[in-house]
Amino acid sequence: MPHDIVKDFGYLTLGTRLRRLGEMVQANTQLIMQQHGIDLPAAHYPFLAAIDRNGPLTVGELADVIGISQPGATRTIGQLAEAGLLDLSVSDGDQRRKQVSLTKAGQDLVDYSTREVWPGVEAAVRNLCTDLDGSFLDQLASIEDGLKLRPLIERMKEDKETK
Amino acid sequence: MPHDIVKDFGYLTLGTRLRRLGEMVQANTQLIMQQHGIDLPAAHYPFLAAIDRNGPLTVGELADVIGISQPGATRTIGQLAEAGLLDLSVSDGDQRRKQVSLTKAGQDLVDYSTREVWPGVEAAVRNLCTDLDGSFLDQLASIEDGLKLRPLIERMKEDKETK
DNA sequence: ACCATTTATATAACTCGTTATATAAATTCA
DNA sequence: TGAATTTATATAACGAGTTATATAAATGGT
């Protein structure tokens, strides 16, 4: 196995490493879903899952709950609408806003996935995280919260001040 | 703070969540480097660091040690060469291979960063990961190794078999 | 010596994130 | 009431990853 420099650099290249691992996990998840005959990209299903859980959401709300930029959400929503899984309609009270909801096909896909696909994916990823020292999900949550609370640039300044 | 559906779904959306966090950490790292007057994208410096550490590498070797695809490495190497930080030359023994090395400017940037910038970045990220339950880097290593050892699709099959 | 196969890299095309900006609609203020 | 400002979304352009494929060079087999 070739030398892994991103791993070698530890904290310095954590961002690159997390992205890389995220892409690997997404690619693996993709394979499982394809085996079930589902061609949905891994990055798309939080959109369907969010609406299934919360009911119709606006474009901006979807961006917020998924944690990506609004133009990014707009694009993916457009793709899912084109695939016939999502439906867009202008909000009654505010014509700027667009309401995003599941189509029948979208709801069917979510129901099928909830029953037949996602539990397997979830169990496989859980299996991968077994035997770790401490809860990986809790650590991710701590890091996410910590980053929002005090960005790296502040942490660097504080670190210099304590030295 | 709006509801975070990617977090809610835990293991199911781990891939998306890791990518998202990776992008956040990279963006934060970017800000620190910009404060030092360095416009290098966060994803570029593993290239410089790898060559600084190992001496000149081929395109394929760089892709391997950084953990990305060969066309991805080709593109970034081209950009860094255009920025005057890397130099490409055909290998003596094999005209297919291209040797990638640091230019004077590239070496200067790495030396400066190693002295003035990267320790601060490293300390800030370490600070972010303080107070976690268990070593986050070790957990990442375990997950990476585990994924290579047995991809998710195998883990899903095994999980079904044990039930 | 020649042909088939393999290897290394470049290019094309795609996805999915970003920021910047444009456009339309709603709100606020004087 | 009208203009300025704010808000919601779409589009453009970019970066950085991917897969597929093309091209060139090296290797191996007969």
UniProtKB/TrEMBL annotation, chains A, B:
<dbReference type="InterPro" id="IPR039422">
    <property type="entry name" value="MarR/SlyA-like"/>
</dbReference>
<dbReference type="GO" id="GO:0003700">
    <property type="term" value="F:DNA-binding transcription factor activity"/>
</dbReference>
<dbReference type="InterPro" id="IPR036388">
    <property type="entry name" value="WH-like_DNA-bd_sf"/>
</dbReference>
<feature type="domain" description="HTH marR-type">
    <location>
        <begin position="11"/>
        <end position="158"/>
    </location>
</feature>
<keyword id="KW-0238">DNA-binding</keyword>
<dbReference type="GO" id="GO:0006950">
    <property type="term" value="P:response to stress"/>
</dbReference>
<dbReference type="InterPro" id="IPR036390">
    <property type="entry name" value="WH_DNA-bd_sf"/>
</dbReference>
<dbReference type="Pfam" id="PF12802">
    <property type="entry name" value="MarR_2"/>
</dbReference>
<dbReference type="GO" id="GO:0003677">
    <property type="term" value="F:DNA binding"/>
</dbReference>
<dbReference type="InterPro" id="IPR000835">
    <property type="entry name" value="HTH_MarR-typ"/>
</dbReference>
<protein>
    <submittedName>
        <fullName>DNA-binding MarR family transcriptional regulator</fullName>
    </submittedName>
</protein>
<dbReference type="InterPro" id="IPR011991">
    <property type="entry name" value="ArsR-like_HTH"/>
</dbReference>
